[in-house]
Amino acid sequence: MEWLGHLFEKYPEMPVYLAIGIGYLIGALKFRGAGLGAVTGSLLGGILVGNFFHVPVSETAKSIFFLLFLFGIGYSVGPSFFHSMKGDGWRWAVLGVFMPFVGLMTAYAVARLLKLDLGFAAGLLSGSLTESPAIGTASEAIRNLAMPDPQKQHLISHIAVADAVCYIFGTAGLIWFVSSLGPKLLRVDLRDESKRLEASLGIKRTKLGISPAWQPVTMRAYTIPTGAAIIGKTVDQAEHSVKGARVFAERIRRNGEVFKPAPATVFEAGDRVALLGRTDVLVNVVGTAAPEVADPELLDIAVASFGIYVTGKQLIGKTLEEIVVTVDETRSVLLRGITRNSQDIPVGLNTVVERGDTLHVTGTEPAVDAFAKIAGVVLSPVQESDLATMSLAIFVGVLAGAIITIPIGQLRINIGTSVGTLLAGLLVGWARSVVPWFGRIPDGAILFMRSMGLAAFVAMIGLKAGPVFVTALKDVGYVLLLGGMVVTIMPLLTGLLFGRYVLKLNPVLLLGGLSGAQTMTAGLAAVQEKADSTVAVLGYSGTVAFGHILLTTCGTLIIALLS
Questions:
Q1: DSSP for 339-393?
Q2: DSSP, residue by residue, 113-125
Q3: 388, 253 contact by CB (below 8 A)
Q4: Whole-angstrom Cα distance, residue 298 to residue 281?
Q5: How far from chain centre, in Å, is Cα 33?
Q6: Whole-model pTM?
Q7: DSSP letter assigned to residue 305
Q8: What pLDDT is attached to residue 412?
Q9: Mean pLDDT of successive 10-residue segments in the chain (563 residues)?
Q10: What stretch of H or E contains 339?
Q11: What is the pLDDT of residue 470?
């Protein structure tokens, strides 16, 4: 142990990676589908290692990792953050602001009542509201206070202690509230309510749950037999013969000649037709008696499948049904799914397309290219990140955070380099949604920045907190646990009542929105499981951007209020 301790002091990067590895193993453990997650696991891993070994942790290294994480968060949520304030999205924006504010005020009141020091108060907030980034913003705020460095480090170590204690109920309590207590208070049956909501959105349910409309997609060739119902119909009539589905006749072979039909072309017996559409729909068009044929020349049609990042005004704010009816470029283009805020959302005729959505489409190559020109930008894979934009944005964010002070009453709150970087990422992410070729960073790179950046940061926080963890836990552990329960439940309860009776939000979407406002994906999963539906993700995606931005900022605010 002594030899290992000397090795860790000489090479401090070793225990950092050891703590992250232990943390991911801890985070992978689940009980009834819920677990602590990699971030809290990394914090506990750092505390465990730090309890046995003295590890000299670099403040510069901590800042570099944390700033990468904050930029990644801002970059990810930028498009939806600003768009949510438009149109009907204002209600979700209000809920997304209301809950962090209640959480901050509750944490402040509990900390004053229990006479917690600044570190315990900040950890109470970050753990109870399950927003670990608040550890970083609170730590920076403490470092900016006028007090001796040893006292600052002591307070910062207390943040990790309180966060670890309060996070357990922060997670379990939120899951219990949104999946069990919340529906009981609203007196709704999640399954029945979800079915009604799906019907209103035009979403079709199958035994396995929600199936996005118009998939899977295929191109097949059939011979039209004598007596088939399609004989005598025009191409346009045949393509619209199956209600609620889309199918396209791309080519016809007639008397040995292959040609692309016009909408007015009439089908004849013996025609071979190449159809593009959902597999189960194609047979309904040509009839079950129509034999499928292998005709390489007829089927020699280039089919493209792309993700399209939505920026086009012709699509934004419209339902899928409106788009199909009013946008001619949707012909021969079929939708396979929609991704919003990194979440797959259920798709129906009344699903509204928003700026920043990614439409996953399939169709003939010319049709997809034409649709992409009016819809947005094709997300062709990129391997290199725009590190120039990222680095300069972080520089400007840190500079702004260091010099900008916001007056609130008699308080003068310095926004801090952490919040400045978060806002810089937010603006770059928004700018990317307006000019998609600006600041391109692959999704994998953003995921790494968010995952590794925060895990490494909290692991180093844990290494510093390790020596005082046990003592502090004995002194205030039960107090923090009880106080944390109040801080977790209060914004959920008030958010439930405010969202339902003031904002008039749908109950299922509201429960998803509560999970988003406290940035807890596990809560969303619990609602979806109880509802036997994924539709709650529409509420989650409306508030999660506000939760990430505002709860992270609350780490700075609670130190300012209490100091």
A1: EETTEEE---TTPBP-TT-EEEEEEEHHHHHHHHHHHEEE-----S--HHHHHHH
A2: HHT--HHHHHHHH
A3: no
A4: 20
A5: 19
A6: 0.72
A7: E
A8: 67
A9: 82 90 86 71 87 83 88 82 67 92 96 93 93 89 89 90 88 90 92 87 53 57 86 86 78 90 90 82 74 85 83 87 84 84 78 86 86 84 80 93 76 77 88 77 84 88 82 80 94 96 93 91 86 86 87 91 88
A10: strand 333-340
A11: 77
Question: Distance (Å, rounded) from C-alpha 34 to C-alpha 525?
Answer: 10
User: Which residue bears the tokens 């007056």?
Assistant: 407
> What Rg value do the Cα atoms of the chain yield, rounded?
27
Largest Cα–Cα distance of the chain, in whole Å?
Answer: 92
Residue 216 identity: P
Give the residue carrying structure tokens 């190449």.
274
Q: Is the peptide bond before 216 cis (omega within 30 degrees of 0)?
A: yes
DSSP class of 292: B
CB 357 within 8 A of CB 310: yes
- Helix axes of 59-83 and 443-501: crossing angle, nearest 10 degrees: 60
- Tokens encoding 529: 């499981």
* 3-class DSSP state of 215: coil
Q: Which of 505, 510, 516, 511 is nearest to 545 (CA)?
A: 516
Token code pair at residue 420: 């400045």
pLDDT of residue 208: 33
Indicate the length of the chain as a whole number.
563
**Burial class of 563 by CB neighbour count within 10 A (0 to 12, 13 to 18, 19+):** middle
Tell me, what's the pLDDT at 215? Answer: 46
CA distance 307 to 358: 6
CA 328 to chain centre: 31
Dist CA 64 CA 474 (whole Å):
33
> Residue 233 has which token pair?
């119909």
What's the pLDDT at 209? Answer: 37
Integer Cα distance of 116 and 165 in angstroms: 14
pLDDT at 34: 63
- The token duo for 258 is 């292959």
Q: Are 124 and 558 in contact (CB under 8 A)?
A: no
Closest among 561, 556, 544, 557 to 97, alpha carbons compared: 544
Q: How many C-alpha atoms does 506 have within 13 Å on its Cβ side? A: 21
- For 316, other C-beta atoms within 10 Å of its C-beta total 19
**Residues 285, 537: Cα–Cα separation, whole Å:** 34
Cα→Cα distances 535→312, 351, 477, Å:
25, 11, 39
